[in-house]
From TrEMBL:
Protein name according to UniProt: Glycosyltransferase
The keyword Membrane belongs to this UniProt entry's keyword annotation: no
Pfam families according to UniProt: Glycos_transf_1
EC number, UniProt record: 2.4.-.-
GO molecular function annotations of the record: glycosyltransferase activity
Domain Glycosyl transferase family residue range list: 234-390
The keyword Glycosyltransferase belongs to this UniProt entry's keyword annotation: yes
Alphabetic keyword roster: Glycosyltransferase, Transferase
UniProt cross-references to Gene3D superfamilies, sorted A to Z: Glycogen Phosphorylase B
Length: 416
């Protein structure tokens, strides 16, 4: 059976972003005869920053093109009573009385329409009808997932499917400012399968939309195997964090917690990887409040360089202070090196940070002193208990988050 996979992304493999797709793509390419990657929100002149397999074709749609098309696409849904059949009774009830939600739904539909039209135009030259089976795979359970449904329905191949992953912002409606995400019932009905990246996400969808339970299946992401990091020696406690510095990541809470440990007697070393608009403010805070300890705010880093760092430098703890997560790839990476974590119990984080086994969980809302106390408690653990944490981290990663195995299984599962 001759098969083709059409993967819809935001920007991958151009510019920055969606780095966690990089390890999956080679295994997708092995499972299909042809891979078409459609980046649906690029800059006007994007730079390809990631290599792709030999059987991959790359398409890119500038975000500016989609933006220009939005007004016309939105008008195509007039009148907005049922949005051309996309908004059923449950959807209409969800937006009733809320201009923000109704505007969100209209924008969502218009953007999906614009993306669908642009991708369909580009795919016209790919002759998908020559394949016995075609799968349209949306990396996000969002507007491009609706585009995947429409592309499947438009495709003339004999066997065809539309599937989507689901992560965080595209899954947890309560984390959206409107408390709402558009077209959940429609997408679940019309996609062939939805794959949340955590059991927590799967359970949420199944509970919220029980009629579609059989269409929801957990599919963990994963990371590559670079071995264990060096075992920490001496009396220094080395803490590592890695994330884009944004309000949802709340890295300032870690900085504030560390500032409370000035008189703890601990020899502390903190390394943070990741940039963002909050980096300068974090540096200023560290300069004023963390001068008593070794503090390295390294800024953005390429993934390969981060993996080399973990291979070459011992780290005692990884810390994640997010208010919202799917299932953090950054913790998977740390876990693969045998680095236990302290993290907030949000999204699917508890599926990898197993309290007392691979690390320690904090409530979503916590004061800096609570994290400070947890760091002190970790520092007082006997050496054999720290070694057990390291061993369990590696074991859990091997059993559940080994990328090559997870991505190979997923690629087979989504074949038409």
């Amino acid at each position: 059976m001759k098969t083709c996979l059409v993967l819809l992304t935001k920007t991958y493999p151009f510019d920055k972003g969606e780095e966690f797709i990089e390890d999956e793509v080679p295994l997708l390419a092995k499972a299909f005869d042809r891979l078409v990657i459609a980046a649906t929100s690029t800059s006007d002149a994007p730079e390809q920053t990631r290599s792709v397999p030999a059987n991959a074709t790359i398409l890119h749609i500038p975000a500016s093109r989609i933006k220009r098309a939005l007004p016309g696409a939105a008008l195509s849904y007039l009148p907005f009573t049922n949005c051309r059949g996309y908004a059923g009774p449950e959807e209409r009830a969800a937006v009733k009385g809320s201009l923000k939600r109704r505007g969100f739904l209209t924008y969502f539909l218009a953007k999906s329409e614009a993306v669908y039209r642009a991708v369909a135009e580009k795919l016209a030259d790919c002759n998908l009808e020559q394949y016995d089976g075609v799968t349209f795979y949306s990396y996000w359970f969002y507007d491009i997932a609706l585009a995947a449904v429409r592309l499947r329905d438009h495709c003339g191949a004999k066997a065809k499917r539309a599937v989507s992953r689901a992560h965080r912002y595209d899954l947890y409606a309560d984390r959206n400012a409107t408390g709402y995400l558009p077209l959940r019932p429609y997408l679940l009905e019309h996609l062939d399968r939805v794959y949340p990246c955590s059991a927590n996400g799967s359970n949420l969808l199944k509970k919220s939309y029980p009629a579609y339970q059989t269409k929801v299946e957990t599919a963990y992401l994963g990371t590559r195997d670079f071995g264990l990091s060096p075992e920490p020696q001496g009396d220094e406690l080395h803490i590592v964090s890695c994330c884009h510095i944004s309000p949802v990541k709340r890295v300032e809470l870690l900085a504030q917690a560390l500032s409370l440990l000035e008189d703890s007697g601990l020899k502390l070393h903190w390394t943070h990887f990741g940039g963002g608009d909050g980096l300068d403010a974090l540096k200023a805070y560290a300069k004023e409040h963390l001068s008593f300890m070794d503090c390295q705010l390294a800024g953005p880093i390429q993934n390969e360089a981060l993996m080399r760092y973990y291979q070459q430098h011992p780290a005692d703890l990884f810390v994640n202070t997010s208010s919202s997560e799917g299932l953090p790839v950054s913790i998977m990476e740390a876990c693969s090196f045998g680095i236990p974590a302290i993290a907030t119990d949000v999204g699917g984080t508890s599926e990898i940070v197993q309290d007392g086994k691979t690390g320690f969980l904090l409530p979503m809302e916590f004061a800096p002193n609570v994290l400070a106390e947890q760091i002190v408690a970790f520092s007082r653990l006997p050496q054999e208990q720290r070694q057990a944490l390291r061993a369990d981290c590696r074991k859990v990663w091997e059993e559940q988050f080994f990328g090559e195995r997870n991505f190979t299984r997923f690629a087979e599962a989504i074949r038409p």
